[in-house]
């Protein structure tokens, strides 16, 4: 609607407001987080994003694909993106990923240790309890994807 009303210039401020304040901002209660979202959107909603060679991240992995009337170039671009997004695309240092992984590991180990110390009546010793909890967690994992089938 905004783009049709303002064909000469894309209304980035309106788009940023709709995305950052209405869509995400309505779910974000902390003012500093809302400011962060709006700042990150400045990287994506800008005139420079339409210029050749513009990159969203320092590595150059993330960039706006060239405009095309066909969908195939966009699909080809998406296929080149990594499955796990690196923190650099959000403006974070690589250590943010390490910190996230460490926190997730600590949560997992603390949960297993809490289960082991509480006993829970599923096994006779702590080692058996931890083993049962690990087996239970591993049983919940889905089978590996058949990559060839998934790509089709």
Quick structural summary:
The protein is mainly alpha-helical and 152 residues long. The chain has helices at 2-5, 12-23, 31-44, 72-80, 95-118, 126-140, 147-151. It has a domain at 1-45.
Task: Give a description of the structure.
- By secondary structure, this protein is mainly alpha-helical.
- It has a domain at 1-45.
- The chain contains 7 helices and no strands.
- It has helices at residues 2-5, 12-23, 31-44, 72-80, 95-118, 126-140, 147-151.
- It is elongated, with a radius of gyration of 23 Å.
- The mean pLDDT is 83.
Per-chain topology:
Elements: H1 2-5, H2 12-23, H3 31-44, H4 72-80, H5 95-118, H6 126-140, H7 147-151
Q: Please give the share of residues in helix.
A: 40-55%
Q: From the helix content, strand content and strand pairing, which structural class follows?
A: mainly alpha
Radius of gyration: 23 Å
Q: How many separate helices? A: 7
Mean pLDDT across residues: 83
Order of helices and strands: HHHHHHH
Count of DSSP E strands?
0
Please state the overall shape, judged from the principal axes of the Cα atoms.
Answer: elongated
User: Hey, roughly how much beta strand do the residues contain?
Assistant: under 5%
Low-confidence stretches: none
End-to-end gap: 35 Å
Major sheet:
none
């Amino acid at each position: 609607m905004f783009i049709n009303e303002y064909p000469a210039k894309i209304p980035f401020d309106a788009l940023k407001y709709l995305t950052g304040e209405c869509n995400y901002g309505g779910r974000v209660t902390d003012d500093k987080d809302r400011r962060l979202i709006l700042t990150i959107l400045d990287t994506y909603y800008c005139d420079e994003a339409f210029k050749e060679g513009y990159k969203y991240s320092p590595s150059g992995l993330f960039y706006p694909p060239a405009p095309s009337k066909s969908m195939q170039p966009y699909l080809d671009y998406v296929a080149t993106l990594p499955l796990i997004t690196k923190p650099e695309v959000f403006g974070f240092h690589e250590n943010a990923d390490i910190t996230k992984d460490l926190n997730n590991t600590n949560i997992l180990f603390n949960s297993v240790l809490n289960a082991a110390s509480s006993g829970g009546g599923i096994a006779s010793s702590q080692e058996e309890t931890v083993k049962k909890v690990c087996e239970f967690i591993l049983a919940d994992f889905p089978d590996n994807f058949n990559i060839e089938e998934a790509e089709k």
